[in-house]
Specification:
By secondary structure, the chain is α+β, with helices and mostly antiparallel strands. The chain has helices at about 5-15, 25-35, 45-55, 60-70, 105-115, 200-205, 205-215, 225-230, 265-280; strands at about 15-20, 80, 120, 125, 135, 155-160, 175-185, 195, 220, 245, 250, 260, 280-285, 290-295, 300-305, 315-325, 335, 335-340. Strands 1, 2, 3, 5, 7, 14 and 16 form a seven-stranded mixed sheet that branches. A four-stranded antiparallel sheet has the order 6-15-8-13. Strands 4-18-17 form a three-stranded mixed sheet, with no helix packed on it. A hairpin with a 6-residue loop joins strand 10 and strand 11. Helix 3 packs across helix 5, helix 6 (about 200-205) crosses helix 9 (about 265-280) and helix 7 (about 205-215) packs across helix 9 (about 265-280).
Length: about 350
């Protein structure tokens, strides 16, 4: 085989999805140790240190699997972690997109932070969930048909979580990873989360579309949360490529709030991209006790539509944004708020 064929064969041999299952005894140990965790918002650095200490007690094979997921280019882009401890009693799902003020225990937050700490450092942005480090991802009535995490009745297009940046490129300061921890599934259990790894997407694309997607022919729209705060529908990036990096380890960037191709050919390539994502995507129906680790650079994620009832029992996930470290975005830091950035 020639070099290109070797690369293609290597790509096909690497799994892009893994399942990580916590043994029952480990689950109960995590529950016991996390049971005394107070509100992490009161001292997030102490809470991160404590959760790191607890999750370091995972069996070595599981610990290395999660650590390797976060630190190597050739590892999977998405991992489902199952059999995590869950709270026996939950208050009603919030209905306003904000944090739940009726929650009296912080087990789910501990699980979320423990997993996050093995991938990097949680990061907050003032334009997303008011800068909170733990996001409650829930259906909100006035956002049901939007391309945001508040939506429910529309398919949330394949995207990665990007951040508006005045430099003109929206995938510079964005999170490296997301963690989604499921507290409550939707009523019918039909809300699917999808992940399309760029390695699989590139294999599915025709040569011409892939070439176009690697050229600076696309303008990403800023996240819906930022656009709402700015009072605009669209705040477009400079023309950028959608796919970058070496063939064996591509990076991909696409905004849920809209991408504009600068030509008809570019628009056609975008349509082919969404189609390829649907063809190769891993499908996960999250349930309580499960979390999804998502590499925000290796692939794009999406969510199917579902029907909320706004009755206190709607779908409820908690999410973190994670950077491997905050050094490269220190110019965006909010004074005296270590983990918060503009």
């Amino acid at each position: 085989m020639n070099a290109a064929e070797n690369i293609a064969a290597d790509l096909r041999s690497k799994p892009t999805f893994i399942d990580v299952i916590i043994p029952d005894g480990v689950r109960e140990s995590l529950r016991e140790q996390l049971g005394g965790l107070g509100d992490p918002a009161q001292d997030i650095d102490w809470a991160m240190a404590r959760c790191h200490q607890i999750f370091a007690t995972l069996p070595i094979d599981l610990l290395q699997t999660v650590l390797d997921f976060g630190r190597h280019a050739d590892t999977p882009g998405v991992a489902r972690v199952s059999n995590l401890p869950v709270e026996h009693e939950l208050p009603d799902t919030p209905d306003d997109g904000g944090p739940c003020r009726a929650k009296s225990t912080y087990l789910s937050e501990g699980v979320l932070l423990g997993l996050s700490g093995m991938l990097g450092e949680p990061v907050g942005f003032t334009t997303e969930k008011n800068g909170q480090l733990i996001h409650d991802v829930i259906p909100v009535a006035d956002g049901a048909a939007t391309q945001t995490n508040r939506s429910s009745t529309v398919f949330l297009n394949f995207h990665n979580d990007i951040v508006y940046d005045a430099v003109g490129s929206y995938n510079v300061s964005n999170p490296d990873f997301l963690v989604l921890n499921c507290l409550r599934a939707d009523h019918e259990g039909v809300a699917g989360t999808y992940y399309a790894d760029a390695r699989d997407v590139c294999q599915a694309l025709d040569v011409r579309s892939l070439k176009l997607l690697r050229e600076p022919l696309f303008k990403l729209n800023a996240p819906g949360s930022y656009a709402r705060m700015a009072g605009q529908d669209e705040i477009l990036s400079d023309p950028v490529p959608i796919i970058t990096g070496p063939e064996w380890s591509p990076e991909i960037a696409s905004s849920a709030n809209g991408v504009h191709g600068v030509s008809r050919d570019a628009e056609a390539a975008l349509r082919r991209l969404q189609s390829a994502c649907r063809e190769v995507a891993h499908e996960v129906f999250l349930r309580p006790g499960q979390a999804l680790l998502i590499n925000n650079r290796k692939g794009l994620h999406a969510r199917s539509e579902f029907e909320p009832r706004y009755d206190g029992r709607d779908r409820w996930l908690q999410r973190t944004y994670i950077r491997r470290n905050h050094w490269s975005i220190r110019d965006r830091a909010v004074f005296e708020a270590r983990r918060l950035h503009v």
